[in-house]
Structure formats: structure tokens, C-alpha cells
UniProtKB/TrEMBL annotation:
Residue list for modification 4-aspartylphosphate: D77
GGDEF domain span: 187-316
tRNA processing among keywords: no
Highest classification ranks of the organism: Bacteria, Pseudomonadati, Pseudomonadota, Gammaproteobacteria, Alteromonadales
GO biological process, one term: phosphorelay signal transduction system
Keyword Phosphoprotein assigned: yes
Organism: Shewanella halifaxensis (strain HAW-EB4)
EC annotation from Swiss-Prot or TrEMBL: 2.7.7.65
Keywords, ordered alphabetically: Phosphoprotein
Protein's UniProt name: diguanylate cyclase
Class of this enzyme: transferase
Length: 316
């Protein structure tokens, strides 16, 4: 029998290189009270180029996770002082789901029920010590591969395919949660609904592909301007929203109006030349107990006014 994927084939090497490159960006936290065990696991992980952080018990593991939100894998021992492996993962899972952080439990304890209990409490996998190196690597890689897959699925479900900002589905599913949170904390939130002016004319004059180029660049500028602190989503063809959590309407208005002016004076480069694009926007502020739909409806009224008043305007 000839294996399709030959060890020395280009495809095999390419896959390996891709994995190693992925591993370099993966931070792994190893929680174990035994220094020897920690160093051993570190050396195994470092052979595969992972970044490794160590914690000597459950409590310090929690603190380390808090300080390093970019950790993607936790490998934890069972028996540890202060807080054991179960206590640790129960605490961790209150905050981080399986799609955010992968956990592999480890123990040299001979109790056969450990593995099932680890997984029931939120671990993705379990390894009995002592283990064969190859098994350790297989489990780590499989766990990370499935995390990657979940992330990809999540992105495909929630990001807009053309512009890579959040899509309509994300906005309607998740923004309600934000509103509830703001209402509970008596905070403020404003919402802007943006619609590109005469966009149909771009398509009609230059073709649909150029229309797409404009949408991509428009979204990228929105992202550049706002996504670090706020939510940017494409909810229709050439309609976008920016959710300004924490801002009253005056401030949101000022930010959006600055964006509007900047857009007007900075033409968008396309394959058919530079095009001057303008946008009309309705901005509104969240009143408590409102739904996303109600909020959006009011923003839409503002948008309609901005269009009627001549476009390239922001209306409250
Ligand atoms: P107004 O100033 O009143 O907003 O005029 P408008 O032409 O922008 O508005 P209208 O709603 O009539 O046109 C929106 C157009 O956007 C129509 C549709 O073909 C186009 N469109 C929607 N989605 C896409 C897309 O993904 N790519 C491209 N190229 N065009 C799209
Ligand atoms: Mg221990
Ligand atoms: Mg429109
Ligand atoms: Mg339009």
C-alpha cells in the first residue's frame, strides 16, 4: 500500500510548516505543582514551537489567564495546592467557552474516573501520566485543530463575506445582549445607521465589481475608524451600523460626522479610477428597555431625513 501523503512530499512538508507557524502564535499555559513535570511539558511543547507560560497551582493559573487573554490552551494537572485542576477548570469555564480556550487535563492519579470527570467539568481532552510523547503531541494538535475549526465556523457565521466586518446575523443576535448590559448598568449607547449615497449609480456606471471594491474600502475605513472600540456591522447591501457602546449621542454624532467629512474628501481608489463617495447617516441614542429593532427604526428615520435633506449629512 502506498500512502497518498508521503512523508517527504511537498504537501506533507507544507502542512507541517503551516502547523509549526500556527504553533508559534499559540500561547499555552501549563498548570502543575511539580517543577519537573512542568519543565518536561514545556520542553515537549517548545519542540513544536509553542509559547509556554507556567503556573504552579490553580490560583496562579487563574491569575495568569486573567493577565493573558491571548492564551489559547491550558494544560492542567489534577492534584495541586490551593485550587486543584477541577476547581480551576470550573472557574475558567464560567468565563471562557470551549471555543475560546481549549483545556487538556493531566494526572498521574490512578483513579479511573478522572478522565470522564475532567471532560464533564469542561476539559476538551485528558491525558494520563506517564504518557508517550507522540500521544501528547497528537492530543495537543487535535485539540488545537478543532479550536481552529470552531473559530472558522464562527467567523463564517458572523462575519460578512465581502467586507469582513460583522454581518447582519451577528448584529441582530448579539447586539441585544449589549443593550441589556447597558440597561442594567445604566450606561449609555448610541447607534449610527449609514447608507452610501447613490450607490446604485456606482454599479450602473462602473459595474458591480467596482461597486464591490467601493464596499470593501468603505467598510475598511469604518473598521479603521471605529472597530477598535465599537461594533461595526454590514446589515444590508450598502448599509452599515456602528454601535457606540458607552457614548451619548453628541459624541457619536461628532465621530460619525468627522468620518463623513473624511470620506467626502478622500476618494476611493478603484480599478476604474478614484471615486468620490458620500454617505448619509442617522444617529440615535438608546433609551432603556428598547430592542435592537426599535433602536434601528429610529436611526432609520434619521437616515431618511438625511437623505431627504440632500444626502452627505448626519441626522439625529
Ligand atoms: P440612496 O442615496 O438613496 O441610498 O441611493 P442608492 O442608489 O444608494 O440606494 P439603493 O437602495 O437604490 O441602491 C442600493 C444598491 O446597492 C442596489 C444594489 O444593487 C446594490 N448592492 C447591494 N448589495 C451589493 C453588493 O454586495 N455589491 C454591489 N456591487 N452592489 C450591491
Ligand atoms: Mg500535582
Ligand atoms: Mg440602501
Ligand atoms: Mg444608498
Amino acid at each position: 500500500y502506498v500512502f497518498k501523503e508521503n512523508r517527504f512530499s511537498y504537501e506533507y512538508t507544507a502542512k507541517l510548516v503551516k502547523r509549526l507557524r500556527r504553533n508559534q502564535s499559540v500561547k499555552v499555559l501549563v498548570a502543575d505543582d511539580s517543577v519537573v513535570s512542568r519543565k518536561f511539558i514545556r520542553s515537549l511543547l517548545e519542540q513544536h514551537l509553542f509559547q509556554v507560560i507556567e503556573a504552579d497551582d490553580g490560583i496562579s493559573a487563574l491569575e495568569t489567564l486573567n493577565d493573558n487573554p491571548d492564551i489559547t490552551l491550558l494544560i492542567t494537572d489534577y492534584n495541586m495546592p490551593r485550587l486543584d485542576g477541577f476547581g480551576l477548570i470550573i472557574k475558567v469555564r464560567e468565563r471562557l467557552g470551549r471555543e475560546e480556550l481549549a483545556i487538556i487535563g493531566l494526572s498521574s492519579d490512578s483513579d479511573e474516573s478522572l478522565s470522564a470527570r475532567f471532560i464533564k467539568n469542561g476539559a476538551n481532552d485528558f491525558l494520563q501520566k506517564p504518557f508517550v510523547h507522540e500521544e501528547f503531541h497528537c492530543r495537543v494538535l487535535t485539540t488545537l485543530d478543532s479550536l481552529d475549526m470552531v473559530t472558522k465556523l464562527w467567523e463564517q457565521a458572523n462575519l460578512d463575506y465581502l467586507t469582513n466586518v460583522f454581518n447582519r446575523r451577528y448584529f441582530f443576535n448579539f447586539y441585544q445582549e449589549k443593550l441589556t448590559e447597558v440597561a442594567q448598568k445604566q450606561g449609555s449607547l448610541s447607534l449610527a445607521l449609514l447608507d452610501i449615497d447613490f450607490f446604485k449609480k456606482v454599479n450602473d456606471t462602473y459595474g458591480h465589481d467596482v461597486g464591490d471594491e467601493v464596499l470593501i474600502e468603505f467598510a475598511s475605513r469604518l473598521k479603521q475608524s471605529f472597530s477598535q472600540h465599537f461594533t461595526v456591522a454590514r446589515i444590508g447591501g450598502e448599509e452599515f451600523v456602528v454601535g457606540f457602546k458607552g457614548l451619548h449621542i453628541e459624541k457619536a454624532y461628532a465621530l460619525i460626522d468627522r468620518f463623513r467629512m473624511q470620506l467626502e474628501i478622500t476618494p476611493i481608489e478603484t480599478s476604474k479610477g478614484a471615486l468620490t463617495i458620500t454617505v448619509s447617516t442617522g444617529v440615535t441614542e438608546f433609551g432603556h428597555d428598547e430592542t435592537v429593532d426599535e433602536l434601528l427604526k429610529r436611526a432609520d428615520t434619521g437616515l431618511y431625513e438625511a437623505k431627504s435633506a440632500g444626502r452627505n449629512l448626519v441626522s439625529i
